[in-house]
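Re: the pair you flagged

First of the two:
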Amino acid sequence: MEKCLREGLRHRAVAVLVIRGDGRMVIQVRSKNDHWQPGRWTLSCTGHVGAGESYAHAARRELAEELGLNSTLVPLTKVFLPKVRGRGSVEFEVVHLFKTRTDAPLSVDPVELDGVRLFDPSELARLMEGRRLTPDAKMMLREYARATRVRPSSRRRRLGPPRPAREKR
């Protein structure tokens, strides 16, 4: 993985969005000691996929390591991120985005994370407008909004069945 980051080679990663029963999303703040985007907010959990590891396995592993959760994951979409440079590394990732709905208690890894917070959609929209959220997290939240047809800045609305197609005359 170090070679990929050093040379800017495309590599595989996962991200998981943890949604609570009340609709709020768990967002983590990265450790200030991390080499990549230290002290910035990002998705509920993120990580690289190891050689020979599936996206789903990596997502379950990262969820357990970072938040102490073991819950059902729903695959959402795959996101091809552009190169992002920082602190001598280049992230160039294909990220498989998952979500999970759970109210299980969190067990935050104090080495990787400085903490977590629950954000409702309006708070998340304000976070996305600022500079405290990592650029890749912003891109993936936009993809999540597209994949789920819910804009982060709007209140949740119930989506009804599709309207029937009009008949041609």
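Second of the two:
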Amino acid sequence: MTQRDTIRSTLRRLFSWLDARLPRWMALNGITLLRISLGIVFLWFGALKFFPNLSPAQELATRTIETLTLGKVGPSVSLPLLAAWECLIGLGLLTGVMTRVTLLLMFVQMIGTVTPLFLFPGEAFQRFPYAPTLEGQYMIKNLVLVSAGVVIGATVRGGRLVPDPEQIRTGTGVAAR
């Protein structure tokens, strides 16, 4: 066996070892990492709204709330309320406490974040519907946050990820939480 063959064989064994272990690690830790990272995003973005002019979404968010409430809720009320709401979502996700309620709050908040796409399309798109502005991109990326919430929500009643679908078919192995 040549040195090159030995290296190839070693690399194949290493790949096989990693390929067997990484999916298990991901299944064991993926939901927790997703929940924590989503919690950080909500807590961070929510906290920014407590400080005037730090959140790039501040003006659009308050104008949206004002429009939806027919002018009854102005920025002086809506911004701290939105900030607290987002921080509450973030804390709920970070701690894993009351996850169902936290996800409900998140999904309601997410509906509000896409509303400006319809209320203010001129600000959300440079050219409707295919060229979003920076604000529009900010709103559209929330599809990823919603999808993350759906994945987390699939586990609140004991749903799990498994590193190998064969485990489901055969009933072998330990499913990851």
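The mean pLDDT is 91.

-B.
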